[in-house]
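Figure 3 (text version): structure tokens given as input.
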């Protein structure tokens, strides 16, 4: 074989079929990356919502724990509510507060704060729940 015939057999560029296959692979990769980015964005948003609920539950618990023993009446729920920023951040947010005397421990009350909200599809998320115990102080007993 001479040098001329060898150069004639080498290809230059891509055929149309190869170009179509390369475009299909690139488009498939783009679709997968777009779906992945959407999933990551949704998960990031849910993590931010969860963090908001945790902060709000902590703030409400702090407010309840600062109240006197007599104010934390088990028969009458305390007047606490979600902050406006929390209500805006968490769709259809619900707050639950439960105060009960602790069984077997005289002078202790269990305080539970629970926050849940709606997620995609109209379902409710797993709630954020915070529980603390408040002891009756000697000066409050008199």
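Below: residues designed for each position.
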């Amino acid at each position: 074989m001479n040098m001329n015939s060898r150069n004639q057999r080498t290809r230059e560029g891509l055929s149309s079929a190869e170009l179509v296959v390369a475009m299909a692979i690139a488009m498939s990769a783009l679709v997968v990356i777009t779906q992945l980015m959407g999933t990551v964005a949704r998960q990031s948003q849910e993590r931010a919502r969860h963090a908001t609920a945790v902060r709000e539950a902590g703030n409400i618990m702090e407010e309840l724990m600062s109240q006197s023993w007599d104010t934390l009446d088990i028969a009458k729920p305390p007047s606490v509510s979600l902050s406006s920023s929390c209500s805006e951040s968490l769709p259809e947010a619900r707050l639950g507060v439960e105060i009960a005397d602790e069984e077997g421990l005289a002078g202790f009350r269990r305080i539970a704060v629970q926050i849940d909200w709606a997620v995609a599809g109209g379902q409710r998320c797993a709630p954020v729940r915070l529980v603390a115990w408040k002891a009756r102080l000697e000066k409050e007993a008199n």
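The two ends are 113 Å apart (CA to CA).
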